[in-house]
Write a structure and sequence with these properties.
Strand content: 35-45%
Number of helices: 2
Order of helices and strands: HEEEEEEEEEEEEH
Largest sheet: 6 strands, antiparallel, barrel
Structural class: alpha+beta
CATH topology of one domain: Thrombin, subunit H
Shape: globular
Number of strands: 12
């Protein structure tokens, strides 16, 4: 049993270390902020809309580099925002499939709760979809998970057992119940909001297909 537990701990530790390479801080002045994930090496970052309190946030990369960010698009209803930083060759997160999640599956959330950089918390999926029993008056597509999302986890990655992005941490709705925006919703948001920008400006913001 000890050997099995050690193996599980080692695998979870390796998973978290891998995800942290694409985990950033999003800062908006002295008050407010959260986390985000590097979506593409060209400087495209995703986070929550409620994390981006100003039009000129700053992003802190895993190596401590601080960069000014530009808000490309933001949707308060979906609680998703896309940022851009002037740096390339960044380590992007691997994308998963939120539609494949099932209740009971293990997921891990990363962020910066209470200023602790690169913290992680784990739990199981409670439900995926819209009009869930935990959120009966909310028709958005959501992931409900059994874990604690303290302030600072917002906008950070929710990953599956392979370390792939399946959602963006958003909020707590109970003592041990958190909510995340599914990665499929994030993909649709990027296609809808950045597609026209790409056509109009010529700037490429690669978006993963379904």
């Amino acid at each position: 049993m000890t050997t099995l537990l050690q193996q599980v701990n080692d695998e979870l530790g390796g998973l978290v270390a891998g995800v942290k390479r694409s985990l950033v801080q999003v800062q908006c002045g002295e008050r407010g902020g959260g986390a985000g994930s590097i979506w593409h090496p060209s400087g495209l970052i995703v986070t929550n809309a409620h994390v981006v309190r100003t039009r000129t946030p700053q992003v802190v990369l895993p190596d401590g580099t601080r960069l000014a960010a530009r808000v490309l698009a933001s949707d308060r209803h979906l609680d998703v925002a896309a940022l851009s930083v002037a740096k390339t060759g960044l380590p992007s997160i691997e994308l998963g499939d939120s539609r494949a999640l099932q209740p009971g599956q293990w997921v891990t959330a990363l962020g910066h709760p209470w200023g602790i950089h690169g913290a992680a918390t784990g739990g199981v999926v409670i439900g995926v979809g819209s009009n869930l029993p935990e959120m009966p008056e909310d028709d958005r597509e959501l992931i409900v998970v059994g874990l604690q999302l303290r302030p600072g986890y917002s906008g950070g990655p929710l990953v599956d057992d392979q370390g792939r992005l399946v959602g963006l941490n958003t909020m707590m709705i109970g003592p041990e119940v958190g909510v995340a925006v599914p990665v499929q919703v994030v993909k649709e948001f990027l296609r809808d909001r950045l597609g026209s920008m790409r056509a109009g400006s010529g700037t490429e913001y690669p978006i993963a297909p379904d």
